[in-house]
Amino acid sequence: MVLVDEAHLLWTQGKQSWKSGWQLDEIRKRAKVTVIVFDQKQILRSEQHIDSEHIATMFLSANCVVKLEDQFRIDASDETIKWIENFVEGSIDAIPYDNKYDLKIFEDPLKMYHEIIHKSKDQQNGLSRMLATFDWEYKQGKSGYGKNDKWTVIADNLELPWNLETRTSKDKQRNRGLSWAESDYSINEIGSTFTIQGFDLNYAGLILGPSVIYRDGKVSFDSSASANKNAIKKRNGKDHAVEHLKNELNVLIKRGVHGLFLYAVDSELQKALLDAQNN
Fold this sequence. Notes:
- The protein has helices at 23-30, 52-61, 78-89, 109-121, 169-174, 193-196, 229-232, 241-253, 267-278; strands at 2-4, 34-36, 102-105, 128-132, 152-155, 158-161, 190-191, 201-208, 212-215, 218-221, 256-264.
- By secondary structure, it is an alpha/beta fold.
- It has two domains: 2-61, no CATH class; 78-278, no CATH class.
């Protein structure tokens, strides 16, 4: 019996030493019973992309399918959860009042960062970190373009290094066994889907980079502004970049259990979010 959590992250094509197709197909051939947790909206890379027809075939061939309708990460009203889901799908409604969940739009990303620091020091609020869409370059093992040659996220008056860019050997020793979000040094960095997918925060400060835009009354995506090459590269000549970038946003925007702070680089998107907050 094989249990695969987050089966949507399995490769669906050959990569490195893997030479076959969908890894899940190969697992199912070898296991007597296969149980998977699968979310199509969390597929982030071209190597993980699977077409809807193949997914439908997988469900039809299963002995049992349980659709999970409720989520337990975001401790918010139904109206707030619906607002977040609608935003990912492209619409921006008036932000509802919610006495349980803190959904706030910031005009100043530096001020948002300082608020995240404040939340992280407050024992009642606890774990809080900054996140961003992968719209600023990062090359592992190479010098960056920002302060102290680090790969950084630059948004208006804020400049912070990407995840894992500042940790030292002492940091590694002190935070041994902890995830990026739990490590003390990560309050000085910005997380991506690579370090936050699958983890919870109490408060998330999310910078929506230039790939997330607002045009013609709808949230959309500009793949040319993304630095996430694994998400935007074509697969068998087909372009699935917008779908992957939408899924990236879906993952990042749902990390905060008690609160979500947003700042958008795109001026039209930022205005639409502020209008939604003020209505």
